Amino acid sequence: MTTQPVAAFEPPYVMAVFSSVRTADDTGLDELNDRMEEIVQAIPGYLGYESARNPEGLGITVAYFRDHESLTAWRENLEHQAAMRKGRAEWYESYTLHVATVERSHGFVRNA
To answer: Molecular function terms in GO for this entry (predicted)?
Structure first.
């Protein structure tokens, strides 16, 4: 797991923010997430993601894509669609998805 944010990308680009609360039994979810990461990394235009979960169980994953077409390719991937159905049926109490176009982006890294 990384402790650094993803780099600032050259705008415009697209981000999908997935906020979720899991069910008590998330058996198998980590393995499926590993597979989803393999798939999304192969999509042209995928830039990266960041993810965190607080002790109370709220998780936020932000995925970055070069454009809406690359995000659409991810949304329409058949394995991803099956994973979304399984997530609704078994692993998530609730979730929200926000999609936005980023107009400005910058970062900071302290010199060691």
So the answer is: monooxygenase activity
Query: Between helices 78-86 and 29-41, what is the axis angle to 10°?
Result: 160
Model pLDDT, residue 26: 87
Domain of 21?
Answer: 13-102
User: In this structure, are residues 15 and 61 in contact, taking their beta carbons and an 8 Å threshold?
Assistant: no
End-to-end CA distance of the chain: 21
- Furthest-apart CA atoms within the chain: distance in Å: 47
Label residue 2 by pLDDT band (50, 70, 90): low
Tokens of 64: 């970055």
When the pLDDT of each residue in the chain is averaged and rounded to a whole number, the result is 94
What's the average model confidence in pLDDT over 51-76? 96
Cα–Cα distance, 75 to 34 (Å, whole number)? 17
Domains of the chain: total:
1
55 in a structural domain:
yes
The answer as to whether 56 is a domain residue is: yes
